[in-house]
Amino acid sequence: MDLALQLLFTGIGIGAVYALVALGFVLIFRATNVVNFAQGEFSMVAAYLMVVGIEAGLPYWAAFIAALLGMALLGAIFNLGVYYPLRHRTYLPVIIATIGASILLANSVLAIYGPQPQVLEGWFETPGIQVGPVYLDSQYLLIIGVTICLVIFNFWFFEKTLLGKKLQATSQDKEMASLLGISVSTMIMITFIYSAVLGGLAGILVAPVLFVSIQMGSTIALKAFAATIIGGFGDVAGAIIGGLALGVIETFGAAYISVPYKDGFAFLVLVAFLIFRPQGIFGERVAEKA
Amino acid sequence: MSLTRRDFAAGIAAGVAAPYLINSAYAQGATLKIGMCAPVTGPAAESGGYAIKGAKLALEAVNKAGGILGKQGELVIEDDQTTNPGIVLAFSKLAAQSDIVGFLGSIRSTQVHAISPDVMKLGKPVMIGGTDPNLTHMGNQWLFRFRPNDSYSGRVIAEYGVSTLGKKKWAVLHSTDAFGTAGGKALTSALEKLGAPPVLDQGYANQSQDFTPVVLAIKQSGADILGSYFTFENDLGIFARQLRQLGVNIPWVGSPSIVNITALKLAGPALYNTYGVADYAEDSSEGSKAFGKLYRDAVKVAPDNQSSWTYDAVTVLAAAINKAGSTDPGKIREAILAIKKFPGAEGEYNFDQNGDGLHGYNIVKNEKGNIVFDKHIEFND
After folding, report:
1. What is the pLDDT of residue B192?
2. What residue spans define the domains of chain B?
3. At what angle do helices A216-231 and A236-256 cross, to 10 degrees?
4. Does domain B32-148+283-349 have CATH number 3.40.50.2300?
5. What ipTM was predicted for this assembly?
6. B234 — contact with chain A (CB < 8 Å)?
7. Taking Cα atoms as reference points, which of B226, B82, B236 lies closest to residue B167?
8. B212, B214, B244, B248, best to mutate vs chain A, most A CBs in 10 Å
């Protein structure tokens, strides 16, 4: 039982990271109908920005805010440079452009900062606390807490605010939203900025656990993408549940079946969903519209 | 004499081509080229940088001492991207340059396996740092190893843990790639011979983000000592932190990656008081000390095996070519295999007929981040 509790905590912690990145995937997909394959690189860039800020002498909180502001700017540039010029094309050129942007971001950071992996200290000085038989890593606790806050915030923002409703309207039917006087391009810009900040937040939160490296983004993004499909592409709640489920499944699979095939369990679940329930746990809104 | 259109065209063509032909001829004759596959990008890019610095330092010393066959040595580097397809591509690019006389391959066994068929086809000497014992025992006469192989590291880890530390309940942890699998097998075999078969033999996939299940398995196994073969420093760093956080404080004797610079930086105090087998230990010999000083002065960081093996590989290759008096691959091969009692940064080279230059390991201890040499264990079989 002690073992299961420890695994559950770790699984939820790592799953929460997948969920945060998956959320960015979903928001952009809903707004633009394309998958942003550079979402993982947003996490990596933010973690490096955080390291740069701290090395520049900024306090931790200031480096955190500066990194998130940097990500907002990157999100805007990404929209203008990658999505906007191709917005009238089919989804394929946009997806290829996001893959290109992902390679560009990874290699730009490599060129500027070098290949050295970096250590980013966590927010708390205490590495964790022992609660009975379970060790709670303070960084994982923070990640889980932030994920819960974001779930609540997203619900409030998208359901209770005018801007959130405008964003939802844009994601559901751009033409109709435009006819109602909503600036579609502004809404898409806001979506990219918000997604970049979310991806960045995930990167900064997970960096003290996984270290800051050029590869960290792609490693997380692959799982987050799987989580998005499992949860149901286009569904915010699905991304969160999919991410958490994936984290828990792979952790328990590694502990009780096979460690070397840990990643295999995650993708086995993905394949099972693609065969038996391709719309994911919560289905797609596109289906509802039809 | 009238100038025809054909003469004019020929004259222009000769005029345009001449500088390139002269430069090309000069370039081919002026230097003697050594190809190097190194991870410039990918997860091992940092250690790849150290490897390149080690090779360049050796070549500088060789060139200062008169060069190779009277010519200046030149290093031609291709990025192997820390992947198997990457090194196959990098090696094929280098192999296509017929004026390259010898090569430096990878420190990663899995990558050496990937290029091994191409090395056989090319038939030129390739220096390697991969420690999977099979690499020099699978009929490829063109691979020459500049680090002791894992049959030695497994024996040294087992011997030190059982005899010196007095521990018999072993957990063996290794990556599931060629290096980790071979290392894990070598350690398990050595432990069985010492009458201490492991209570846990655990593999893991490279680039894991979480080692909680592994740590809990070690905890549950009741092991009183851990032996490890990690391929990537990121994995080692994450595991070391989680191991300590989850309260496992048993002695730990690891393969060389446990004492390399990147791992020490990432894991920090989580690696304090661990032991490692190290092919490079700064205080283990006069050659090691001399390399350490040279490297620190030039690069301003502590040396480790990532740079020491490439330093030795270039030094030995240059010496062998000079001794052979020729760039004929067969003659270079014979000259390398004839090298005995050659003092290198990694230790004393005595090549056997398989192409293994070193036959022992150092044991070192991490004392609050400082790597302290304990002893060298050499094998004659």
Report:
1. 96
2. 32-148+283-349, 151-278+364-378
3. 110
4. yes
5. 0.84
6. yes
7. B226
8. B212
